[in-house]
């Protein structure tokens, strides 16, 4: 068991690691996009895009509905790419999330200060029916992105994936190790419906060729995750 580490206090709440998320729902999907367009959205020069083919990057959209999280019960949209620290070997594979909107203030402040994650507070709706879920992200009060996926189910257990999420903390390249459930419930790519709205986020998505059919998609409910305290690279 990893030793528990206390980072400090935010708004009278003590921040400790490992941080265990005991319940969240998530849709995760990947898209093949132009590597040059992806690199244009990567800030600074501390990280580089991983090409999954000549001139092709993997764009990841993760839509999370956190139900039982020490930092709140909030919705989050992750937009990022498979990436590695600049100059690292080909065996190093992680992700750089260039946008991470959330809909609550505490997780925004904690994510910014502790992990360097690019969290901002905006409206994110997660609307459920028995058959599907729709996430809607607003940017400046206008719809930027809407994604609808079927609530597919499986008896297969989720797969525990260990990875590193990269960021800049106080301008310094940073890595946050994490272990997260990846649902085994596979969504048919043609059943994923994306709508791109307006505003800066929508413009960035359009530059990547969105809306498009994903290469893969999963939907999971009652997933778990563990975040470690990150460190400079």
UniProtKB/TrEMBL annotation:
Coiled coil: none annotated. One of its GO terms (molecular function) is lyase activity. It comes from the Bacteria. It holds the Pfam family ADC. Gene3D superfamilies: Acetoacetate decarboxylase-like. InterPro entries: Acetoacetate_decarboxylase (IPR010451), ADC_dom_sf (IPR023375). This is Acetoacetate decarboxylase. It comes from Candidatus Neomicrothrix parvicella RN1. The lineage of its organism: Bacteria, Bacillati, Actinomycetota, Acidimicrobiia, Acidimicrobiales.
